Amino acid sequence: xxxxxxxxxxxxxxxxxxxxxxxxxxxxxxxxxxxxxxxxxxxxxxxxxxxxxxxxxxxxxxxxxxxxxxxxxxxxxxxxxxxxxxxxxxxxxxxxxxxxxxxxxxxxxxxxxxxxxxxxxxxxxxxxxxxxxxxxxxxxxxxxxxxxxxxxxxxxxxxxxxxxxxxxxxxxxxxxxxxxxxxxxxxxxxxxxxxxxxxxxxxxxxxxxxxxxxxxxxxxxxxxxxxxxxxxxxxxxxxxxxxxxxxxxxxxxxxxxxxxxxxxxxxxxxxxxxxxxxxxx
Length: 281
Hints:
Elements: E1 3-9, E2 12-17, H1 21-31, H2 37-45, H3 48-58, H4 72-96, H5 99-104, H6 106-128, H7 137-146, H8 149-172, H9 176-184, H10 188-198, H11 203-210, H12 224-239, H13 252-258, H14 262-278
Antiparallel strand pairs: 1-2
Helix pairs in contact: 1-2, 1-4, 2-4, 3-4, 4-7, 6-7, 6-12, 6-14, 7-11, 8-9, 8-10, 10-11, 12-14
């Protein structure tokens, strides 16, 4: 794994992994206004492993495409640049740690499944929200996918100590971010934001991730943070099969702020349950 030492938390140096070179190149192409969809698809097709990952994600139930895509160029034409970029980021992050090793690691597997579901819920909430000042649905998908990337960094660098901190926080009823700040001098939300910036992804995505456990501190300036917070809570409820708790993941002010009704939230929850059952790593 190529890594860049990019963060110091208290006495600890945390290594942040680099995105695969192919993903970095494609990310640059997507941002170039002179590069078209078919050119992106052609460039993607030059990397068979990444292409396979992208097609697998694109054809999953989470994206619900009307037809199966078998070629990167076809995927690009159907998905469009914004959605294709979010899928390329998902494919790239899943390859950072190696899919096979993740499958064998129960903790990391649970982390990635939660992240993928949160990404899907973020996109669904964005599509149903009446607010016009949110990040677009594809950007929110990426923010949801990476919202807990800081936890993966802690697990990769300080696994045993981090698991002890998580267990102690849960046993004592202390918010995890407070326990992390006490133990490491930095929270997983802050680390996740650093990863996003290190990977040259949008700054508003990094800012939203940094505050997703305290969204109302920045809701006026960064309304998308509330989407990530609600999606994060709903994803946890789905994963634990907490049917009674699902309607409670969003307070009235969350729903009002996002321009959502309870019916819309329950529709998103119902869809999320189906997606959760179909997530494969």
